[in-house]
Amino acid sequence: MAALRLVCLAVVLAVGLVHALDISKFKDVPVLARTFKNLSRGPPQQVVTNRAVVQEKWITQKLDHFDESNTGTYQMRYLLNDEFQTEGSPIFIYLGGEWEIEQSMVSGGHWYDMAEEHKGVLIYTEHRYYGQSVPTTTMSTENLKYLNVKQALADVANFILTIKAENAELANSKVLLAGGSYSATMVVWFKRLYPDLVVGGWASSAPLLAKVDFTEYKEVVGQAFLELGGQQCYNRIENGIAELESLFANKRGAEARAMLRLCNSFDDKNDLDLWSLFGSISNVFSGVAQYQSSGDIEYYCDYLLSFRDDATAIANFVYWGFGMPTCVDATYASTVEYYLWSVENFGAGRPWYYQTCNEYGWYQSSGSRNQPFGTKFPATLYTTLCGDVFSSQFGNEQINNNADQTNEYFGGMEPGVENVYMTHGALDPWNPMGHGVAQGATLIANASHCSDFGSIRTSDSAELRASKEKIADLVRQWLA
User: Fold this and answer.
1) 101, 258, 316, 420: least CB-packed within 10 angstroms?
2) Contact 275, 382 (CB under 8 A)
3) Which residues belong to the signal peptide in this entry (predicted)?
4) Mean pLDDT, to the nearest integer, of 4-22?
């Protein structure tokens, strides 16, 4: 029974990481890159109960919307479901973010249900540099200069204008946007920059404030384990990680390396290696909390509490979370090497990491003591990685300046938009960077990241159902 439980845990923890990251060309993905990528995967796939025909289409976009002298173009991919289309159909666009788009978002779920009610056309746009919408032959730092949210929002604006111009039935159609996580942020910012192109938007789990040292994230992860898993589970995490830190600090690194199954290349006297290790450990817990559904955290806590001591529990838990490699590669140098390898190998997390360095930060650090994941992964780990992977121009000061400029341009916590419905899970680690109840957002109890896109179900909590009904009512108002 114990062996079966370990196998089940391995499958549940590893499946998200495997789906999030194409590792077929790079045999041993360092765990920092692996777990970081897992935290930026797309919204949950929707349950599809029909046989809608979803068409894959392409549109020509300018490489640089803001430089008239640049005549370069690229092909942006989008998915179209026009099964309900009629004269004047409203256009329901789900915005892609830092992931590859897939069919279920336009053939199932609450967005689909609302489109069906209003005989809408469903579209899922793919963000430049993600999925198959890659504008350049490599992802060198020079080529990534065309990757930023302003260009991506201009892509959406041009897309809307082009679709309407090329389809007589949609020439006068109203447009609505939806998005989750980063693409929810795009919904808000699109309404700020192009308010006349859309009548309303739904932003689920939208971070609005760019912040380099995002200490609040791990606080909410800890809170999720405390509220759903209990004090004993929280204590086990906190004590186990503290014990592992102590082993390294007190010249018992060999013992800790063996427990954690670390590869021989790991150097516990190198701060960057230690930071990479403990950042990766915390990210396993973050992945559970960020994507948890009912019963998940309770299950994982039962597993953690099945061990006799704290450190052994943590070591076994994260080993399964890392995907059970022959040995765990947690070295900083391997992470740098991996992101450099990704210049020629797309889909490996490099473009999103570039955006964090260039626009947002959002580095989920150990800077707060009000979390159980220790002290060994400061934001400096991530800012140092920016410089080593992309360019020395990405020093700590420049990255902070970049985040400040993003906040100044888009308004930070005061984006100044109307007709955008913002939702957050109360246990979503991203919610501190977005609007709360005081700003008019809806906070859904016990829910986490992008957890409200499914169709209305009898299993929905009262709060979740009320939120879904509210956006449905707003859509009716916007389309009236």
Assistant:
1) 258
2) no
3) 1-20
4) 43
Q: Are 191 and 418 in contact (CB under 8 A)?
A: yes
Cβ atoms of 153 and 195 within 8 Å: the answer is no
343 by Cβ neighbours in 10 Å (0-12 / 13-18 / 19+) ranks as middle
Quote the CA–CA distance of 452 and 181 in Å, as a whole number. Answer: 12
Write out pLDDT tens, residues 113-141: 999 999 999 999 999 999 999 999 999 99
Please give the structure tokens belonging to residue 455: 């169709």
Phi, psi of 423 (to 5 degrees): -125, 150
pLDDT at 382 over 70: yes
The 10s digit of each residue's pLDDT in 24-41 is: 344 578 999 999 988 888
Strands 73-81 and 55-62, sheet pairing:
antiparallel
Residue type, 146: Y
pLDDT bracket for residue 50 (50, 70, 90):
confident
Q: What gap in Å lies between CA 147 and CA 187, rounded to an integer?
A: 17
Question: Mean pLDDT over residues 339-359, rounded?
Answer: 91
CB burial of 98-134 (b: ≥16 within 10 Å; e: otherwise) equals bbbbbbbbbbbbbbbebbeebebbbbbbbbbbbbebb
pLDDT range class, residue 12, cuts 50, 70, 90 = very low
CA 160 to chain centre: 25
Which residues are within 8 A (CB) of 20 and not within 5 positions of it... i.e. 6 or more apart? Answer: 37, 38, 40, 41
Q: What is the pLDDT of residue 17?
A: 40
Q: How far is CA 36 from CA 48, 101, 282, 290, 308, in A?
A: 29, 19, 10, 12, 30
Q: How far apart are CA 419 and CA 407, in angstroms?
A: 21
Other beta carbons within 10 Å of 447: 26
With the C-alpha atoms ordered 453, 458, 464, 469, is the resulting torsion angle positive or negative? positive
Question: How far, in whole angstroms, is CA 9 from its chain's centroid?
Answer: 22
DSSP annotation string for 232-277: HHHHHHHHHHHHHHHHHHTT-HHHHHHHHTB-TT--TT-HHHHHHH
Chain mean pLDDT for the chain = 93
Percentage of residues in the chain with pLDDT exceeding 90?
Answer: 88
pLDDT digits (tens, 9 = 90+) for 170-197: 999 999 999 999 999 999 999 999 999 9
DSSP 34-69: HHHHHTT--PPPPP--S---PEEEEEEEES-TT-TT
pTM of the model: 0.93
pLDDT at 9: 53
Distance CA 81, CA 296 (A): 33
Domain 55-208+416-479 has CATH 3.40.50.1820: yes
Q: What's the gap between Cα 22 and its chain centre?
A: 16
C-alpha 222 chain-centroid distance? 18
